Amino acid sequence: METSTFVYDGDCAFCTRCAQFAERRIPTRARLLPWQFADLDRLGLAEADCDTAVQWVGADGSRAAGPDAIARLLGDSTPFWRVAGAGLRFPPVRLVAWPVYRWVARNRHRMPGGTAACSLPQEARERLYGPTGRPTADS
């Protein structure tokens, strides 16, 4: 793989807004992709993993999820953001980061920009909205 990839949930408005913020404000060489449009097999990722946490697949083959993936994305940026990424990897911060990340992930539909669909597992979202994220004819 020639470049690192940061994968997020493109069906979640909150996740998408966070990724858009990162694309605008965090200079990185990594690609930011919604997992629904990523070649998960090529990246070595499973849909279930991507549905529960953001994922990092490094150009060097390294992998990370959740706040560890965010730390890797920040670490691939400018000095200011690298310091933030190092802070996120600092053991006491990391210890707190995972429970906070899981809480945010479970409540992302309540976050600014979130929608009710964000709270549903991918399978339920596809049943309701189809694979494109748009309501199906029978919903």
UniProtKB/TrEMBL annotation:
InterPro entries named among the record's database cross-references: DCC1-like (IPR007263)
Molecular function GO labels: protein-disulfide reductase activity
Protein name, per record: Thiol-disulfide oxidoreductase
